[in-house]
Every structure is written in structure tokens, then in C-alpha cells.
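Revision sheet: C-alpha cells.
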Amino acid sequence: MNSKNKKTILVTGGAGFIGSHLCDELLKRGDKVICLDNLFTGSKENIKHLLKNKNFRFFQRDIIEPFYIKGKIDEVYNLACPASPIHYQINAIRTIKANTIGIINVLGFAKKHGARILQASTSEIYGDPLEHPQKESYRGNVSTIGPRACYDEGKRVAETLLFDYHRKWGIEIKVARIFNTYGPRMAKNDGRVVSNFCVQALSGKPITIYGDGQQTRSFCYVTDLVSGLIKLMESCASFIGPVNLGNPGEFTMKELAIKVIKMTGSQSKIIYKKLPEDDPRQRRPDISLAKKMLKWEPKVKIDQGLKETIEYFARVI
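Predicted:
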């Protein structure tokens, strides 16, 4: 990157799974990166290799509290919110606060700096979808009172706030609806299906499937997702989203479990437990808009991505 094009970028939630990979990529191209994270689900372990980089600064902060950073900020990536059901349900009210009070603080910060802001929204706003695959025009099938509502409805409100700040103040916004993402630096205890299966298989424990195993998900490798986020941030100002970012390759939970068992050489057996309340039966993105507007689509095949992820978990457990 030409030195005159270098940017100073704030990444909230930058010590998390996706956030830390995003910090890596932004630093590689020569940007200055300020990482802000409260370390609730993020970890210093994810960014320890960056701490001596002169273009990287880390602040332990929570976006629920007003924050100040000296100097001009050009862009803000907001990834600050627990993303796995186990973590966002630990303190549901705090999850809602991150997506309301926290977003207002981040938007106020972006407004003050004249910075473009990208919001990491989620496929969870589609709820248990009645449309398959899901397009951005689909308005969702979401419960406002269920145990997942703190996250699902919180993210919906966050999108509303971004669009209202855009209409009211002219802030440049980008909204990415992120589908299931996996890869190295996932927390081993986050309760997500890929991390669960990998850790259980490597530990020789039973593979836990909730429901009958026929519910589906699509899995995007983290480097592909980060590429999509950056392309969205750099897209023309008039394209604000929301835009789906994910891999349309769809697997049943049973298919994924069998694949992980085979790839790890595990002797683990599959066991079945009751499906949690409001757990979606199917999830797959329609990425036509991302292909058209961002010239983006995932490249990493599931076998390659799982190989990298399994090797990571083999080291950490």
C-alpha cells in the first residue's frame, strides 16, 4: 500500500476470533490498527504476536462505556459483541447493551472522527428462516422473547441505529450479515458446532448433536470472511448493505460430525440431545449481492478449512 493511502483503523472486538484475523490483514497491507476489546470472549493470546508491532495499539475497553482515542481515525470495524449462544446468554442484558448503548457510543465516535463504520451484523437476524437460502430482503422469523433474542434482536436494533445515523447525520456506514464462520483462534469452549466437534473428537469424547442432526449450517473459513469485510469497507460509499457474507456450501450437523471424526481419526461416537429453544433448522446465505457488488465469494473448501482448524485445536487442547 502506498504510504499516503495508509489509514488509521479502529477494530472493536479486535482481540476476538474474527477481529484478530482482521487486525492481521489490515496490518499486512500497511494500515495502523487500534484494537479495542474488553476481553470477555476475546483473548490477548489472539493478538500477542501483534503487540510489538509499531502500527498496532491495544486498549482494554468496553464499548458500553464511552471511550476516547487520541488522533484521527479513518475507519471503524465494529465487531464488539459475544457471538456464540453460550457467551451471549451468560449476561443477556449486557449483550443487549452492547448492541444498543455500545453501538450508540461507537457511532458517536465515528461521527466525531468523520470515519466510515462497518457493523458486523449476523445471519441470526433471520431467526429460524422460512425462506431458504436467505436473501438480504428477507425480514426474518425471530422471537422477541426467547433465550436468543438478546443477540438476534440486539443485532436488529444495531442495524436500525446505523441506518438512522446514516439518514440523520450522513455517516458512511456498511452492514455485513455474517454467517457461520470457523477457523483458528475460535474459543474451544464457545459452544459453536465446529469448535465443539473438533474438541470432542480430538479429546475422544462423544460428539454431541442437538436435535436429529438433519438441521443445516453453512461454514465460511475466517480468511474468506475477513476478505469480504475489507472489500465491503472499501466499496463505494453508496453501497451500504446489508450484505450477506458466508459460504453457501450447506451441511447437515450429522454430515459435519462424520467428516470431523474421519479427519481427526477419532474413535468418538455421536450422541443426540434435545434441540435448544429457537435453534434454527436451516441456514444458508444467498451471496448474489456480494458477488455482484464486491466481486467476492469464498475460496477455501471445507476440507482445507477444517484441516487448519483441527490442527489449531490439536495444539491448544
